[in-house]
Each structure stands twice: as C-alpha cells, then as structure tokens.
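ARCHIVE CARD
Drawer: 12
Card no.: 0347
Subject: one protein chain, sequence and derived structure
Cross-reference: see card 0346
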Amino acid sequence: MARPSISAHRQRGQMLVVFALASTVVILLAGLVIDGGYALAQRRGAQNAADFAALAGARVIAEWVGGDTINGTDANVQAAIANSIQANGGTPVTFGSPSGPVYVTSSGTPNGFVGTISGGVIPAGTVGVTVGSSRTWNPFFLGVAGISNWTASAVATAKGGYSLAGPPGNVFPAGVSQATYDTFPLCSGDVGSSVDCQPVHLTPGSLNVPGGFGWLKFGAAGKCTGYGLGMIDAGCDTSKTFLQSEIGPPANSYGCCTTVSHGPAPADRIGSLPGDKNSADCSYYITNNVQVIVPIWDVAGGSGAGAWYHIVGFAGMQLTACDGGKDIEGVLRQVFFPGPTTTTPQPKGSALGIELVH
C-alpha cells in the first residue's frame, strides 16, 4: 500500500492553516457585527442617561432661576443627577472630579463642579449643567482579538430657566391676575397640606374687569386658528354653551395654545367673557385633581362684553371650587414647559422650562 507523499501532507497542513485562519476571520467578523451592534446600543444608552441626567439637573436650576432657593440648591442638583444616572443604567459619576458634572454659563463656560459648591448655593451666572455618562461591558466575541472590555461614553448639556415657549398642550380658558400670583405663595404639595397650599379666591369679579369673572373668549372659528391670543377681535364664541363644552372634561378643553407675542395690541390680549355667560361646571377638574395651565394678565380694560386682559405669561393652577363660574378657587402651581429658556426675570408663577442643548 502506497504511503501519502510528503507533498500531500504539506497540502493538508496548508489547508488546515487556511481553514483556521478563515475560521478566525469569520469569528472576528461575527464579533464585529454582534459586538459592534451591542456597542451602538450601549452608546445610545449612555447618551440617554447623560441626556436625562442633564435635564434632571437643569430642572433644579430652573427652580433656582425662578427664585426657589429652598429646592434650587447645589445638593439637589447633585441628587437629581445621581438619581437619574442610576435610574437610566449609567455608571455612577464622581462629583468634583475633572470629568464630573459642571455648571455652565450662557456662553458654555464651566462655572464650578456640581456637588462641591461652598454653602450649597448654585453659582451666580449659571444657566445649565453638563453631565457625562458611560457604560462598560465585556465583548462577546472580540476577546479572541484581545479586547476584554469596551466603554461607551456620552456628554449632554441642558439649560434651565423661565420658559420662552407657549404651553405644549391646552390652556384653561380663565385668566389669573399677576397681582394674585404676587400675593399668594406657590403650592408644591397636596392641597391643604401646608400654609402655602390653602385654596384662595383666584378670579372673583372684584379682581377683574367690571362684569367679568376671569373667563376668557377662547376658541374662535377653527379653535383659535389665526388668532393667537388676540381674542378681542370678532369671531369669538361668547355663549354659555360654548364655554361649557370647552371646559371639560379635558378632552374637550382646547383653548388657545400659542405663545405670548408681546406684540402691538391687541396681539397679546384676550377678550373677557361677560358675567352673564360664565356659568360653568368645573367638577371634573376638581374631582380628579387636574392641574391646568392658565394665562397670567397684568392689566385689563373695558367692561362686560368689551373687556379685555393683557396676557404676560402662563402659569399653573389646580381648581378646588368653581361657584357657578363666578368665583374660581384653587392653589397656584409651578409648571414646566420644554425650552427654549431664559434667565431674564418673569412674573411670579410664570412657567419654567428646561431644554437639551448638547
């Protein structure tokens, strides 16, 4: 029986080497596909964690910008960021380190490390915060190539302050005077749980125009299309039936949801609903503890059907009573809108805002 030649042995050895090399290449390619896809997912996760953490910190900064020095503190910014990072699966950040979260000014300049500020007061000039996040894991296949771990990192910056945007949803068709917001405190707890959360008279006729009880001429033809806040013009529905259908339940409460223009009158005015047309049922809001968004007005003029309110912003309110529509009672709430934001002082109670700017 003839033995295989030396050449045949050599060919078989070469085939084994080629097969081994090809198998290695296949494994590496599979590793790149699988581990690369997983890396992209982890990168998105790290970015999401950074985004949410920056927005959480910016929310506290917005409270500070709005004058709340009880909740708007360095310690609360730190806690908000740490809790958000943990909730979204990011690696815990080290506060005070060169890579830790930092406050930023309007120009993006670092303004001190979060969690290390003496006295706990957020630094003057702060408008936002920058937060980094990372995720580290062990690759499935690329260990063959000596890659034993992989880290994905991301950075996000968010700003907080007063909102420059209009409400993102519906607006309740009743205005509250700026004087009311200046007089009474904002409630951050349950109704009746503290002195700040005691219900107050928000729209009695004595605080409004003659013959008006705070109800506004919302909902011109097309539900405010083309009118913005200029409801003093013709086309507004002033019927009691219309007001009732607009108030509730909330699925029917559309109102106007445009931004305050601050343009020439009457662009930033809303007409007043006369006193004989304002009877309405607010029970849905009261029973379900619904927080609504209302326009804030600073000055008003006229009387009855010809009256108007000058709108300067939007704020939050929770109804506790609505006596036939002639006297709305409730507590004042702070509301947040998505950006853009500003640190320029606004009327007390005006909506705060946060925006992602990374």
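Annotation on reverse: The longest strand covers residues 308-322. The radius of gyration is 30 Å.
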